[in-house]
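Subject: for your reference before the review

Hello V.,

The reviewers asked for a structural picture of the protein, and I figured it would be easier to keep everything in one thread rather than splitting it across files. Below is the amino acid sequence we used in the manuscript, unchanged from the supplementary table.
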Amino acid sequence: MKHQALTILIIGALTSVLAEKPKRMTEKDYLQLIIDSTQPLKFKRGDRLPLYMWSSRINSIADESEIEKLTAALNERGIAVISAWRAGNQKSIEQAIRVAKVQKKLGLRVSVDATGAVYSFCDGSEPTGHVAEDGTKFFDTSFASYRKMGCPFALGERYEPMRQKLVPFLEAYKKADVPLSLWTCDWEIDGPIEWNDAWANSKKCTRCREKIKNIDDFTEFQTELRKIRSHMQKEVFTKTIQKYYPDALIGNYGVYPHGGYRYWYDYFEKDVPGTPAETYGKARYRKWPHEFDSTGYTFSMPVVYTWWDIWTWQDFEVADYRWTYNMLLVASNAGKHTKPATPIIPFVHYNLTAPPKAGLPEDLVPMTERAYKEVLWHMLLRGHDTFAMWCPRRELAQEARLVQEVYAASMEFGEFLSKGTPVTFDVPKPKNKKDAPAVVSGMKMGNKLLVRRTDFTDSKAKVTIEVDGKRVDVSRLDGKCQILELE
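And here is what came back from the structure prediction:
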């Protein structure tokens, strides 16, 4: 009987625990999680751009004293508060103004994520469809089942309706006499995109065949689509914002200057066989048009993520170098080709990104925190100004800690990073699959050189880089930057 009674008590206790639903975290809870996971800056930030986190939003807190308290605490850590614009939502406008007024009071930049106000040019309406031989309209759903991608040459009538989604926010900001320092968005699956089934569908469209004379040439097809895509971003996003705020920093996810190739694939993209690409290992680095200047954007926004398939592209035995090689390739590509006066604000993410539903390769080894932080350091030393950290909220505490630790520590070298010039964009290829070469990055200011060397093996051999035609030896110093005198 005693055992039976004990069993009943245990079952009752378990039932009670299981019945309790976990507390649903509020916006304030997530902001507090960021604050608790990070530390106030030890060095002054000066004029350097703040750290952007896509979870550092204040969209639903109405109490201005609470907004000010949270904004100030985040600012102590170098982190910006972001307001999200939601088109057609008057409360969204009122809240954005409320936050902007607090930021103005505190002397802070006003930053906006307008993703909720930039969709959709491709709204699925009949006029935007491709035109089949029999005159019927059809759409491409190979990017997302919910997005009916239409004909690239039938979207002109969508410009003004899309522009009018932004205007109410901009007019409200002007009326409230608040600044707009940074405007960005995550505008991805919309407008003309050349990947997935787009090329095949355009070949079936009478309008596309008429407009693109040599449509069987992918490069010509890609070039024409990217011209339209850049034009619509410039006309609807950039020009509309600059009419009200000519000095605002304006940019979009994944749009940045580069050397003619893209070294990563987005989660919704499928490669198209037979298209131009460079290869290395199993990687196909796609040829990519130069679209940044045509958009009129004023800051560069590359995407440096741990996309899961990076692991499958190479057979390097040192796991951290498999991840580092590709991520640094993307970062260096942007750093090398972005003009010094144009800020670089890359999206970054540490945890495995967009894993496949079918499961991961059995031999996959995740990137270590140490290697990720080293990549962030090298990005700063190759011309990136700050970071835009994205992650699912379940990863927020770890992701916020990692990126803010590097950002905060970099303030010690703020003058170098603000005024210096990158000296190398080299991403060394291993000599064989067992090799993992050291990575060196640096900033030159006057006759001084700020450098960081990251090793992936136990090698203590000097690494030599060339600066202004002179050879500079860089000794191993794990986890630290060095300042060298140049003769």
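For the response letter, the relevant points are probably these. Residues 1-19 have pLDDT under 50 and may be disordered. The two ends are 88 Å apart (CA to CA).

Happy to draft the paragraph if you're swamped.

O.
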